[in-house]
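dumping this here before i forget
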Amino acid sequence: MAAESEKQAKYIVYVEDDARTVDLVKIVLRREGYVVTGAPNGREGLKLIAEVKPDLVLLDLMMPDMDGWEVYQTLRAQDATRDLPVIIITAKAASIDKVLGLHIAKVNDYITKPFAPNDLVQAVRKVLAHRTPSQP
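structure:
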């Protein structure tokens, strides 16, 4: 039975430079049965995504080294990650940023910090429910 539930677990990579925020998201989503791994910056995030092949990516926009939009564009440019769902989690709360993310860049969802844990859980559930299973 444990092997069966492990097989059905959804894997999430959270690319975020604030370790406290990563820890909070891990606590919230692990309670819901998700397996969450964090990466501290864009470059490490891309490496982790390639290794883990997650079901979903949570992505901060404002990071040093490589910002979230660069990570997002890299994911969309590669065949293996082109259709990978991405939820932006950012402090950029201006309406124009949300419009750019949802309607221009076509991210799957856009959550502004600070956020309610339940809002995060609902967004993750919604995005994963609409994902078509990937081919082996």
